[in-house]
């Protein structure tokens, strides 16, 4: 018989009944909100709760639950740190500052958040302590754990982080598998969130009601990358990338974890325009970085992916003095700042994949006169771009790192590309106990340390880094602006190999997934639209140009062969003209996996550039030009799909045309199936005097 | 054994094999394209086919199928007219013209299409003839059947129209049921297209790949309205609204059917911004229509829906001289052009629903001094707005129509509202053979004729019409600009009745469904947010204001009681200021049923107005103000949801604030759950000289 019925029959007076009524359920108290913090515009609210000493958090947006009660804490080697906790202290603060990027999608970044720090401590036992710090923005939030110095704990050996994200609204997810062999290089899956097993971040969601979410992390320093494992329903659990040591992370106290981030927007474009990840990173640690050079570059590269030339020495060796000289000439003639050369050093001759012990980073092969080429490049105003493929022999590379970087510095190389091609997604690590090599994931603590070491050593020599098969981007370019770009997704080379090539929706998906992390060296611009053995690349000609605007990187490759550019001079002109460093960037419109239109303003001129790409379906997108400077006429140099263009049947149908437009005009941007459009807007009038709207920001 | 295998075994030479291979399938020839036409920008292609004499059509967009092979033709009383047809003649032409609306969402409308007319005739039998005429625009198409004068056919008795729409991409539909009792007044259903039984138009679809479609009709004159019945899969069949006569339509030749229309857009807003329906109607047939007055109005109306007053005579009769005088005073004081009075005439005292034989449209009730009130209104610069509720006694109304309209003309009434409230969705029609009354649907040929008769008779007297419980809008306001507005969807009165009220998504749905047809007299502005018996209306305060911009009508009611407006003077100010006639209108962003933001420029000033509404979820929408005149500062008068607003728990949390902005600014428009935002932009600077971009249109 239920308690209430018992009480009724006993005719207990009603007030007394209510008191008694609470006895049974109230023995276990409900989770208690111990602190909460709103975003500056009161759009988001984050609450920290304790449920009998167990911490959790919730996120509401405009009064609606987005993240339901989700655990916080750790499984440490010396016992779980997620229970019997009490609040020791709490602090709030508000920050509203604007900082300047040395390079980037936009020059000025506003950092406007409310912060809540809650210090928690175990009530009994070893009385271990840590804090949870929330920074809440109008368009997202980050939180991290902070381990202060404390008597009972010198270091943390983390077996698992217990952070959860219980997504409340029913959602569709775009994701790539974690714990899989090809280090991020997958086509994005689109599935119900309820069907995701284990995924990497950025992890992008759209709810049935049109709310867009992305989970990622910021400032991944000396820690393991966070994967997301789905539990019950739509509950996601942090799962740290493993280590060969057994634990996931080992750190001496004090230390902070990376920020766990959640971007939230009503529009898909809002995710892309968000500065959350950069804002949560530490400011520039390098001081004057005028030696970091955003640039376009070409390279001795695509011919190897076509199987026309080889990385290995011999009659087809690509990295020869004569060949590279030809590329330098082409770069100088067409305004490219760099020439990448792969295969320039010994070690490529055998099977080097996952087997990089033979790479020598301090000597060139005999047919590559690196000193003469560097001098020749310098004379022509071009930099050689270095290349260090490790074949996953990471410590073998570290052994040579100082000498290798000294060589580049001496030669005038300003940027180098690294590579970590393995056969199973894991790199080699020497076994300190002897015995067979250990294996480490691309995004575990071991590799987080390695990548940052390379970047820091490079910075000492004024070199910039472009890492391929990298650890994921978490915004460290803010702190280390010489970390220019990286790969970390399925790039253009899959279109050379064709197994299978990247379907048109892939590049649209990238904008709303991978690109949320930061710049990607996708290596666009294959105007020949042809891969290995004549394979067709699923793209129109105009689309290849649009990629320079839609897929942001401060270094952009013109990846095709020089002779192919000369066959498509009309289209190539856009690649010559397009900027790589921006005053401002804005997503005008887009839907994940369907289409996207982005505009960016050149940092070094008054030009604007527009890029628009679609999936396998043609589109007609009305684009209002209100982003242009008011009262100024612009020459719109339009590079578009021809009327009969189609990525499968008629990819080369292409039109270059000009119109005069102003900020009041609206364009109908027509994209062929698998197509794209690129526009350069060149001002024809001087800049008008400002209308003076200081009051309006 | 398959034929091919037989041939292979016979070792027939391969060329011969291919020829033989065709024998079996080719005995029945494939449908043959007899003509096709592209849209001006080569975005759409429509093809007409004959398959052994049976006509069908297909629609492709940017090379992809949108409408698969779909039948054309008629089931006539004297035999099907859809087979054994041959092409007699065909004509193409291109039109690019711009016409001016006397009032509307925009002043100038471009009408740019390619037309294909194909004349078909029966090869045998009675050799009946008809033509199919396609007009193909970049954002949609219309087609209609044309029956020319011909020897063997004096009239057409149409039992059914056989037009089909076979939607190719998998789609979700937003729709209301046809053949149902409450004449269009339903909440919109959102279902897979494959689950729709029988629906009205406009019928809105979104494909899985983000293509937006709407099926409707234009220029429904002397014909039955088209319903859509789903057949197999995603194939929709036209099903004409029935007639008590048994047939659906009876017309003497020559005649044209209404246009069957298909709007196609990559964005939801593109459907709303399309001018297709208006363009397919005939130009203004009334000549000078300077006597048609877009205006805001108030009315003796909401108090009856609240059950505070009655239409019927007696102590609670609303339409009294004193009460109306109070409304006239309020209208004059606050700039309203009209005062609607319902219940002013005899006939309301009993049960008049579906039983309107007692209505007298030529006399006022004794307590309503119509002459004195008209004179009083005229003195105050206000018009009385007439009202004719028929209670579905349509011919009873027609009998009095001349006298009733003469009365209004004499009294200076410039607009009148009609009503057709029945108890089962059908109106009464006298039985020419005697006997019980016949019943006719609201959108059959009988009512199509009736409504146009009222509009034409009204035009003769310079009166404008606002029809409630009407036939659906098909753009006839272009031809008859005195057909100002109408109802034809679930309006505000459901929020008074609360059975159930309109949930927030309803008004968002309306924008992308009902409003595609034309203006709606939704009667917004219930600032009390309270219905009958204190029922809460599911809306925030700011949202009520936003409805004036998002739900277009050239006559907009301020539907609440005057005393309620005086209780909310801050919010009411927007209703006083908002325009009703526009130079231009534009959907800035929106998703069907989720949210929408629309901006419109006043036709009689340089002011712009913005309205944004959401469903039950809060939103934060980035709104670039590029639509404003460049180089001009504007005072943005912002009427927004307060930070804690919520349509369920805190609907009155509201802020009115001002900022100075220019076309370069971007606003973060924050909408509460069930909320909205309204902004008036008032220029602070004179209009700058034009930058002169004639070349850019």
Automatic annotation (TrEMBL), chains A, B:
Residues 37-283 form the Glycosyl-hydrolase 97 N-terminal domain. Residues 581-681 form the Glycosyl-hydrolase 97 C-terminal oligomerisation domain. InterPro entries: Aldolase_TIM, GH, GH-type_carb-bd, GH97_C, GH97_catalytic, GH97_N, Glycosyl_hydrolase_97. Residues 301-489 form the Glycosyl-hydrolase 97 catalytic domain. It comes from the Bacteria. One of its GO terms (molecular function) is hydrolase activity. Keywords: Hydrolase, Signal. The keyword Signal applies. This is Glycoside hydrolase family 97 protein. Pfam families: GH97_C (PF14509), GH97_N (PF14508), Glyco_hydro_97 (PF10566). Coiled coil: none annotated. Residues 1-29 form the signal peptide.
């Amino acid at each position: 018989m239920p308690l209430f019925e018992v009480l009724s029959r006993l005719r207990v007076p009603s007030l007394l009944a209510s008191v008694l009524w609470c006895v049974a359920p109230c023995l276990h108290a409900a989770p208690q909100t111990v602190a909460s913090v709103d975003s500056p515009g009161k759009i988001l609210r984050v609450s920290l709760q304790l449920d009998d000493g167990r911490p959790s958090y919730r996120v509401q947006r405009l009064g609606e639950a987005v993240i339901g009660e989700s655990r916080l804490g750790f499984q440490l080697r010396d016992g779980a740190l997620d229970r019997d906790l009490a609040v020791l202290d709490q602090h709030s603060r508000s920050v509203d500052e604007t900082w300047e990027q040395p390079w980037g999608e936009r020059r000025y970044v506003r950092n406007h958040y409310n912060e809540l720090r809650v210090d928690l401590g175990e009530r009994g036992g070893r009385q271990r302590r840590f804090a949870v710090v929330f920074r809440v923005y109008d368009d997202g939030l980050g939180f991290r754990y902070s381990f202060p110095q404390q008597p009972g704990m010198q270091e943390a050996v983390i077996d698992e982080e217990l952070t959860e994200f219980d997504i409340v609204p029913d959602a569709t997810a775009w994701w790539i598998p974690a714990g899989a062999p090809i280090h991020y290089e997958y086509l994005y899956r689109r599935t119900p969130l309820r069907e995701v097993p284990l995924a990497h971040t950025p992890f992008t969601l759209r709810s049935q009601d049109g709310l867009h979410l992305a989970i990622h992390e910021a400032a991944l320093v000396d820690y393991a990358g966070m994967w997301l494992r789905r539990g019950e329903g739509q509950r996601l659990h942090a799962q740290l990338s493993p280590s060969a040591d057994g634990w996931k992370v080992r750190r001496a106290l004090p230390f902070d974890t990376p920020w766990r981030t959640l971007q939230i927007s009503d529009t898909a474009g809002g995710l892309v325009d968000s500065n959350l990840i950069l804002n949560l990173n530490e400011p520039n640690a390098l001081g004057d970085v005028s030696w970091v050079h955003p640039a376009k570059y070409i390279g001795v590269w695509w011919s190897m992916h076509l199987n026309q030339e080889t990385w290995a020495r011999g009659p087809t060796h690509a990295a020869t003095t004569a060949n590279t000289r030809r590329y330098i000439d082409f770069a100088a003639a067409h305004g490219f700042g760099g020439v990448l050369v792969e295969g320039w050093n010994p070690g490529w001759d055998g099977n080097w994949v996952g087997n990089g012990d033979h790479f020598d980073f301090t000597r060139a092969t005999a047919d590559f006169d690196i000193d003469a080429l560097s001098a020749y490049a310098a004379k022509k105003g071009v930099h050689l771009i270095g290349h260090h493929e490790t074949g996953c022999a990471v410590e073998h590379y570290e052994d040579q790192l100082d000498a290798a970087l000294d060589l580049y510095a001496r030669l005038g190389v300003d940027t180098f590309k690294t590579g970590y091609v393995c056969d199973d997604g894991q790199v080699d690590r020497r076994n300190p106990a002897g015995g067979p090599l250990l294996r480490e994931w691309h995004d575990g603590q071991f590799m987080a340390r390695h990548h940052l070491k390379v970047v820091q050593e490079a910075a000492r020599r004024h070199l910039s880094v472009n890492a391929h098969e990298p650890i994921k981007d978490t915004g460290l370019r803010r702190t280390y602006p010489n970390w220019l770009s990286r790969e970390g997704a399925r790039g253009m080379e899959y279109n050379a190999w064709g197994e299978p090539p990247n379907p048109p929706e892939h590049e649209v998906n990238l904008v709303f997934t991978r690109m949320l992390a930061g710049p990607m060296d996708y290596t666009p611009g294959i105007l020949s639209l042809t891969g290995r053995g004549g394979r067709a690349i699923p793209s129109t000609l105009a689309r290849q140009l649009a990629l320079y605007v839609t897929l942001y990187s401060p270094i952009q490759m013109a990846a095709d062969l020089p002779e192919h550019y000369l066959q498509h001079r009309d289209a190539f002109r856009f690649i010559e003209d397009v900027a790589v460093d921006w005053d401002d960037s804005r997503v005008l419109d887009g839907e994940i996996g369907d289409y996207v239109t982005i505009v960016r303003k050149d940092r070094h001129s008054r030009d604007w550039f527009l890029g628009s790409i679609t999936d396998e379906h043609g589109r007609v997108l009305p684009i209002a030009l209100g982003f242009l400077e008011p009262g100024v006429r612009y020459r719109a140099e339009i590079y578009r799909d021809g009327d009969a263009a189609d990525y499968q049947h008629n990819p080369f149908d292409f039109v270059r045309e000009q119109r005069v437009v102003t900020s009041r005009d609206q364009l109908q941007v027509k994209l062929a199936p698998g197509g794209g459009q690129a526009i350069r807007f060149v001002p024809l009038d001087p800049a008008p005097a400002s209308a003076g709207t200081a009051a309006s920001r």
